[in-house]
Amino acid sequence: MLDSFKYTPDVTKNLVIINVLVWLAAMVLLNFGNIDLNGFLAIYYWDNPNFNPYQIVTSMFSHATSGSYAFLHIAFNMYALWMFGSMLERTWGAKRFLFYYLACGIGANLLTQAFDTATVYSIAGTLAPLNTTSGTIGSIYGIPMVGASGAVYGLLLAFGMNYPRMQLRLFFPPIALEARYFVMILAAFELYMTLSNANTGIGHVAHLSGMLIGFVILKTWYKFLR
Fold it and tell me: Rounded to 5 degrees, what are φ and ψ at 178?
């Protein structure tokens, strides 16, 4: 795999390297300096005092540093970025690929903020309630979001639309599945988790939002650039 990584297209390779370096720096600072880098890079709800506009971008390059799934979080995202991003960058070219990746990630963060705002308003009847320490509102206010997942799920959608009949061999379940069906199942699962309001600690709204932004971009490209 390391040998294959040498031949990875430049943008995909550099995105993987940046994400891994930021994650390693965050791990080192947290464990040896008691400094929470994600406290600065993660994106908070817009009404949280810790929110800064730059987090809309920086949160895309930070990943979980605590909990049993911390390594799996970055490992899955970077593996998917490398595997699917490499083929898409070779097809589209560097500039188009980078635009798509960043647009999906930033768009996912913005749509998640909008979804959270609507959720807060539907519960409290105001956009900035006084009691923000419990329940769903407490989770929205108190738990920042990190990860490249919005951008990565946009890549998954693009892969399924560009190479719909390509066979993917899944780890679980261990079967071969055409890319188009894999993306459909993934989208349906994320939609179900979003509508069920399951408190899993995973950004299902961001995943679905990244796919939605990607779909709009691809449809626009297909209409005007082909």
Answer: -65, 145
